Amino acid sequence: MKESRSIILAVVSAKNDDYANQIVLKLARIADSKGNRTLGVITKPDTLVPDSESEAMYVSLARNQDVEFRLGWHVLKNMDSETGEWSPIDRDVKEEAFFSQGICVRAVNRIAMLQAYFALPCSGSHDHCCT
C-alpha cells in the first residue's frame, strides 16, 4: 500500500452494519491520505435490509459522498457460495435482477461495465476467468 504507483482496493462488506469500523478504510487513508489512488469496493449488498438506514448509508458510500475516493466506489454482488453450484450465466442473471430493483435502480448502474470486463478473453490458464 505504501508504493505510490499502486492502486489500493479498499474492500468493505455490507454485511457489517457500520463500514466506518472496517479497518481497511483507515489503512487506505494512512497510505493514501487524499484518496487519489484508492478504489472502493462494497461486497454483499444483497445482505442489506431494503429501505433501512444501513442500506442508505451504503448507497451514500457507493455514490462517493461519504468516504471519497478519486477512483470511486464499485458494488459487487457475490455469488451465493452456500448453493455450491453456479455458472457465469446464472451469475449474470442474478446480478442483473438484483441491480435492477429497489434502491439500486436509483444508484449508479455498473452492470454493463462489469459484463464488458468479464467478456474479455483471458490469457493463460486461470480458473477465475469466464469466457
UniProtKB/TrEMBL annotation:
InterPro entries: Dynamin, P-loop_NTPase. The lineage of its organism: Eukaryota, Fungi, Dikarya, Ascomycota, Pezizomycotina. This is Uncharacterized protein. It comes from the Eukaryota.
